[in-house]
Amino acid sequence: MSTTSTSKWPKILPPLTAEQQRTGDAFMKLWHEQLPNKYARLERFNHGFPVGASQPNFKTTLEVGAGLGEHLHHEKLTPEQAQNYYANEFRENMAAEIRKAFPLVKTIGSDCQKRFDFADGFFDRVIGVHVFEHLPNLPATVREAYRLLNKRNGRLLIVIPVEGGMAYSLARKISAERVYRKNFGGSYTWFYKREHINLPHEIQEELAPYFTVVKRSFFPFPVPFYFCNLCIGLALTPRPVPLVRS
After folding, report:
1. What pLDDT, on a 0 to 100 scale, did the predictor assign at position 34?
2. pTM for the whole thing?
3. d(CA 62, CA 77)
4. How distant, in Å, are the alpha carbons of 45, 155, 157, 214 from that of 55?
């Protein structure tokens, strides 16, 4: 039996001032608004991967960290699938936008690192597009995703950035950092250092005891190298029994 590392979790972040909190919330909303138009090819991978890797005939979906609901634009849901789609978003200014744009789905304003009010095995899909790198208590979200997924045919579908890689570091400089400086001024360092706190290997280490990878894709180059890629898509199925000590 293996076990996940617990000594560094949850990661402790420096406190935010009220102004930093307002700025961070405003920037995240602005960034999500600009992504579909300015970085359309990247967004097609971000949201196309979970759609393409979904199992057929799913019914229930939980999307964690749903932002402004961008992913829903890429789904082709039946009325039943839409009514059983739960979009979770922590920032209330963004959750409000999901409610306005997608009234058929159910929006949950909560922290995905805490327990959801659903029965074990309730969901066929759990989706997280650029979410797992942000979570100070990542193991709690991994365990909750495992609890919530149907163990027979459930699937965890995530996309994570290649944080720390050469290509990703350069891309951030000419994209998100440029948008931040143009609209808010000052240093961007305080923001991204408290946002992208989990590296790809840390995320995959926490997933491994609970899930098996059934599909992995890299963007923009279809080769398993970190230095030249920006994102990794992972489709995972829950293990019948987790490889962790109780």
Report:
1. 87
2. 0.91
3. 13
4. 18, 7, 10, 11
In the DSSP assignment, the letter for residue 187 is -
Residues of the chain with pLDDT under 70: 1-6, 245-246
Alpha-carbon Rg for the chain in angstroms: 17
Share of the chain above pLDDT 90, in %: 80
Which domains does the chain possess? 40-163+198-215+229-238 (3.40.50.150)
CA distance linking residue 188 with residue 144, whole number of Å: 32
Alpha-carbon gap, residue 139 to 143, rounded angstroms: 6
**Cα–Cα nearest to 157, from 242, 42, 35, 75:** 75
**How far, in Å, are 27, 59, 63, 201, 232 from residue 123 at the CA level?**
31, 8, 10, 26, 23
Q: What is the pLDDT of residue 5?
A: 47
Q: Which one-letter amino acid corresponds to residue 213?
A: V
